[in-house]
Amino acid sequence: MTEVLLISGSTRTASTNSAALRTAAELAPPGLRATVWTGLADLPAFNPDDDGDALPPVVADLRRALGAADAVLFSTPEYAGALPGSFKNLLDWTVGGAEMYGMPVAWINVAPEPRGDKAHESLAIVLGYLSTDVITRASGRIPVSRDTIGDGGVVTDEAVRERIAQVMTAIRDHLAR
Question: Using H for helix, E for strand and C for coil, what is the string for 7-52?
């Protein structure tokens, strides 16, 4: 079974980014298992002195999850014209491990245009630094409004669900090559 790790850059409980990723997990096509990683709010501030053999448990969990994944799908909001600090912190923790290097990755931006563009510019810089394999066919803007989030915290709008399903299929197809 091919594993895709879904990581939201938002710590907000009712985040549209997290809802999009929960929806992606629900819509994973056959042969693809998708898991939402939920430890973002628990990560300690990155300190290179702590990036050794005795990692904080939540960091060790993140690296284990990345190491078990065949690909990663990110969805992150933009705060103050860049990546949210908590999400950048998560990315900083990945640099010290080798799990992300060369990893197939994709991203979705759930904000209406032009919001979120600076966050994805910043994300592209970090993903380039990590030499990831960006799946461009699975990356892009899929606006999600709060009023389309239903019970269970998933997107209910059928057109948006179809676009999210297409992202997951594109990831599966990329990994199958």
Answer: EECCCCCCCHHHHHHHHHHHCCCCCEEEEEECCHHHCCCCCHHHCC
